[in-house]
Amino acid sequence: MVRIRIFGVLAAALAALALVAGCTTARLLANAAPPTLTPTRTPRPTWTPASVGVVIATPTIDTTRFPVALPTAAPAAPLIFVPGSDQPIILPGPGRGGPAVQTVVVILVTATPSPASTPTPGPFVPAPRPTATWTPGPPTPTPSPTHTPLPPVYVITREQANVRQGPGVAYPVVTRLERDTQVTVVGRNQAGDWWKICCVNGADVWISDALVRVEGPLWTVAEVTDIPPPPTPQPTPAPTATPSPTATYAWPFRLEKPPETYPLGLDIFRVDVVIYNGAVPLWGYRLRIRNLALGQEWISDESKAAGWDWTIVQWPDDGLVVANSGVECPNPTRKGLRCVKTNLKWDSYKANLPGGTGPWEITVIDRAGNPLSAPVRFDTDPKDPKWYYVIFTNR
Predict the structure, then answer these.
(1) H or E stretch including 164?
(2) Which domains does the chain have, with CATH numbers?
(3) Residue 311, strand partner residues
(4) Interatomic CA distance for residues 323 and 312, integer angstroms
(5) What is the β-pairing status of strands 102-104 and 60-62?
(6) CA 162, CA 227: separation in Å to the nearest integer?
(7) Which terminal residue of the chain has fewer beta carbons within 10 Å of its beta carbon, N or C?
(8) DSSP secondary structure string, 99-130?
(9) What is the phi/psi pair of residue 199, to 5°?
(10) Residue 213: enclosing H or E segment and its boundaries?
């Protein structure tokens, strides 16, 4: 026991001496001149691919830097640092009690591909339309030079001119062209005195150069060679006897002039008629009056033998009343007075028919009812009633 305690005391004393010696040595080292440093080139880090995480390279020890406390145990292989984990980084160093050094740690970072992001749906954007790619085609041929066409040749007739089926008077005439007619030329005969022209009644015909004026580039007109010969003239037939004209029936009475019309305020059919020989009235003649719409007819009274009935169709300008038409009308002395004479009258008032029911027709007849004139027709208008003045003569 005494020996054991002695060895313990000795061990404690040795430990105290070692501590004092260490402190003294540290102070001496601190006061000593700094050692001469040999510059060294710090190696550039190298990038080592790794599947995941961060690779921690084995550190190197630089004894020339300030001391730091380092752990004594170091891993046998480089560490792989996993981002987001709390694993410690272990750096190797000298054994306990060795010199303190600064450690340079080289961290090789390997990029880890980011996870594919899920696209957020948004509004539909149509893809751009592809731009057409120009593909060179075959070279464009150089157009051949074109010539300006010459104007047509045409003839203009100097006067009325016959056109024929061929170049000569022996050919039949097709038609006649009026003066200053312009027609296009399509050919000529060998002599150049006839022109073939287009077109008359849809066909080519010929016209004499003596009857026309030709304009245009004459040298372009081609000669026509396929000209048929003129037709063989037919023998002139012997003249035939001209038949005697057929005698036509001449009516004893005819209209001296077209009927005259005058305004009438009543819707009736009225005729004032003269039947005479050109100088004096004739008596004993009648009118056959027919309504063509109704198919009815009437016979008038006979014409008068002596004297005339006078009807005023225009009054004098003095505004005074005509006292006696029979006296003033035969020898009018008043300005503006105009009268007509008659020796037979008829109106539809006697038949109790309106004038607008026509058309009407009148014919001169004798006492036996035989017609002596051609029928004269009247188309009446109930909206514009008129009376008619008709003169028949046998002269």
Answers:
(1) strand 161-164
(2) 46-109 (no CATH), 154-220 (2.30.30.40), 254-307+343-393 (2.60.40)
(3) 340
(4) 12
(5) antiparallel
(6) 18
(7) N
(8) --BEEEPPEEE-PPPPPPPPPPP----PPPPP
(9) -135, 150
(10) strand 212-215
Q: What is the DSSP letter of 295?
A: T
Evaluate whether 215 touches 356 at the Cβ level (below 8 Å). Answer: no
Whether 185 and 196 have beta carbons less than 8 Å apart is answered as: yes
Alpha-carbon distance 101 to 72, whole Å? 12
**Angular region, 236: left φ>0, alpha ψ -120 to 50, beta rest:** beta
**Cα–Cα distance between 336 and 321 in angstroms, integer?**
13
The residue with tokens 């001209």 is 242
Tell which phi-psi region holds residue 42, choosing left (phi > 0), alpha (psi between -120 and 50) or beta.
beta
Residue for token digits 């060294």? 40
Per DSSP, 294 falls in state T
Per-residue pLDDT band for 341 (boundaries 50, 70, 90) equals very high
**Residue 47 corresponds to which tokens in the numbers above?**
């990038």
Predicted pLDDT of residue 29: 46
DSSP conformation class of 371: B
pLDDT, tens digit (0-9, with 9 covering 90-100), for 91-150? 555 555 555 544 545 455 555 555 665 666 666 666 667 665 666 667 777 777 666 778
For residues 51 and 353, give the distance between their C-alpha atoms in angstroms, rounded to a whole number. Answer: 131
In this structure, the chain runs to a length of 395
In this predicted model, what pLDDT tens digit does every residue of 5-42 receive, in sequence order? 555 556 666 655 555 455 444 454 445 555 555 555 55
The encoded tokens of residue 245 equal: 């004209």
To which residue do tokens 């058309």 refer?
A: 359
Which of 301, 308, 251 lies closest to 281, judged by CA? 308
Residue that is written with structure tokens 């510059």 in the block: 39
Using CA atoms, how far apart are residues 57 and 87, in angstroms rounded to an integer? 16
Residue 302 identity: E
Please tell me whether residue 7 adopts helix, strand or coil conformation.
helix
Please report how many Cα atoms fall inside a 13 Å half-sphere around the Cα of residue 61, on the Cβ side.
17
Alpha carbons 363 and 290: distance in angstroms, whole number: 9
